[in-house]
């Protein structure tokens, strides 16, 4: 599958990017180069509070910060479903109006929406959204699968490189000391 190898090649290049912020930008850049889209929005997600928060977006106006966007994902059924099922979800037409909060409907010519979850293993930690596409028409199941794979690969890349410089584990003695501290010093060593 040509698209799968293109995604993998581009994602693997992200491992060499030093700064976390630059890596996030490069993820969006790769996404826009691989898929027929005109914009992309990147959000972080907390499954503890069901909160999604904007990070950055690439639109026709260039790179913009979207930190002012913060929502309970349960109020956005399409995005919540994508996160819950860990699969890309797409809607258009009347379904778009039903699924997406009115504040996300930016222009009158936009009538479709794509949400792609990003996961660390089985835990969704973010998502990518697009609402403007190069090609008109409905996204096929095969294309949706490619978007899902992109999100999975991004998650694996972020998981592999997260804390790369601090990968040292505690020694057995350090673990013993940490346990004693967590117990509040109540347990004394016998012998």
Give the topology, please.
Blueprint: H1 2-12, H2 20-34, E1 40-46, E2 51-59, E3 62-65, E4 70-72, H3 77-85, E5 89-92, H4 94-99, E6 112-120, E7 123-130, H5 141-161, H6 172-182
Antiparallel strand pairs: 1-2, 1-7, 2-3, 2-4, 5-6, 6-7
Helix pairs in contact: 1-2, 1-5
What does this structure look like?
The protein has 191 residues and is of the alpha+beta class. It is built from 6 helices and 7 strands; from the N terminus they run ααββββαβαββαα. The protein has helices at 2-12, 20-34, 77-85, 94-99, 141-161, 172-182; strands at 40-46, 51-59, 62-65, 70-72, 89-92, 112-120, 123-130.
List keywords for this structure.
alpha+beta; globular; 191 residues; 7-stranded antiparallel β-sheet
Low-confidence stretches: none
Helix content: 25-40%
How far from one another are the termini? 63 Å
Give the count of helical stretches: 6
Largest sheet, in brief, is: 7 strands, antiparallel
Number of DSSP strands?
7
- What is the succession of H and E elements? HHEEEEHEHEEHH
Which class do the helix and strand fractions yield?
alpha+beta
What is the typical, i.e. mean, pLDDT? 82
Our Rg estimate from Cα atoms comes to 20 Å
Q: Which overall shape is indicated by the principal axes computed on the Cα atoms? A: globular
Percentage of residues in strands: 15-25%
């Amino acid at each position: 599958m040509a698209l799968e190898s293109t995604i993998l090649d581009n994602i693997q290049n992200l491992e060499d990017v030093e700064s976390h912020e630059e890596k996030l930008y490069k993820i969006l850049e790769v996404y826009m180069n691989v898929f027929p889209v005109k914009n992309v929005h990147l959000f972080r997600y907390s499954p503890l509070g069901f909160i999604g928060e904007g990070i950055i977006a690439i639109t026709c106006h260039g790179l913009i910060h979207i930190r002012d966007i913060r929502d309970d994902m349960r109020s956005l059924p399409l995005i919540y479903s994508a996160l819950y099922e860990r699969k890309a979800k797409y809607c258009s037409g009347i379904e778009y109006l039903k699924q997406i909060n009115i504040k996300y409907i930016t222009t009158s010519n936009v009538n479709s929406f794509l949400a792609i979850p990003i996961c660390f293993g089985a835990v969704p930690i973010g998502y990518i959204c697009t609402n403007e596409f190069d090609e008109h028409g409905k996204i096929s199941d095969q294309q949706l699968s490619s978007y899902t794979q992109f999100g999975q690969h991004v998650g694996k890349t972020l998981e592999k490189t997260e804390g790369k410089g601090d990968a040292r584990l505690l020694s057995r003695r350090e673990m013993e000391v940490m346990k004693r501290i967590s117990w509040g010093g109540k347990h004394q060593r016998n012998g």
